[in-house]
């Protein structure tokens, strides 16, 4: 049975890998945010918005892959009844980077991804609470990558409210101050303090999570990001 492996590269950047291919989301330009240079190998890429800390295509070495491993599905359409486990199916949910309709920081795309039977949402730099319609589109999730650091995005309290409303099976916080980083954002601890009432906190010893869809009721917190070459 195909397993999904997750790798945290720091900030909001993750790799999602099935048995055949890997997808990277929101690669960043390290020198702009106080991180080491990023160097990722992947077969495909998605970006939530065109800012240097979320859309650094130059940091990705693209590996050869057949056409069609990344397949977009309209938000209103149903997921495939018999999905190919080697394909990354995804839907886009259009949101804003701030609470002022995007006038401060622009637009943001939430990506809902399905591969090998695991449904994952990456919130990007969401900057506001969700509407009822947006919450409806985020049902039955196995895992949610959600920003928690505030200032540029929702903060810990807003992130907690969102996961309480949509109740993904598991949660991974992102976009927070850590060992690296020069952005004026909070640490992950305020979010952990709140979300421990809903999820068991599991601190991962490293930067990888194998078989990401196997458990429920976990908030995974990585202890390190993957080393860069």
Structural topology:
Layout: E1 5-8, E2 14-17, E3 22-25, H1 30-33, E4 40-42, E5 44-46, E6 60-62, E7 70-72, E8 88-96, E9 107-115, E10 118-122, H2 132-137, E11 143-147, H3 156-166, E12 170-174, H4 189-195, E13 200-204, E14 208-209, E15 218-222
Parallel strand pairs: 3-5, 4-6, 7-8, 10-11, 11-12, 12-15, 13-15
Antiparallel strand pairs: 1-2, 1-14, 2-3, 8-9, 9-10
Helix pairs in contact: 3-4
Task: Supply the key terms.
single chain; 229 residues; alpha/beta; Metallo-beta-lactamase, Chain A; eight-stranded mixed beta sheet; five-stranded mixed beta sheet; 4 helices; 30% strand; globular
Overview of the molecule:
The protein has 229 residues and is an alpha/beta fold. The chain has a single domain, classed as Metallo-beta-lactamase, Chain A (4-Layer Sandwich), CATH 3.60.15.10. 12% of the residues lie in helices and 30% in strands. The chain is built from 4 helices and 15 strands. It has helices spanning 30-33, 132-137, 156-166, 189-195, and strands at 5-8, 14-17, 22-25, 40-42, 44-46, 60-62, 70-72, 88-96, 107-115, 118-122, 143-147, 170-174, 200-204, 208-209, 218-222. The strands form 3 sheets. Strands 7-8-9-10-11-12-15-13 form an 8-stranded mixed β-sheet, with helices on one face. A 5-stranded mixed β-sheet has the order 5-3-2-1-14, with no helix packed on it. A hairpin with a 4-residue loop joins strand 2 and strand 3. Helix 3 runs parallel beside helix 4 (189-195). The chain is globular, with a radius of gyration of 16 Å. The chain starts with a strand and ends in a 7-residue tail after the last strand. The mean pLDDT is 92.
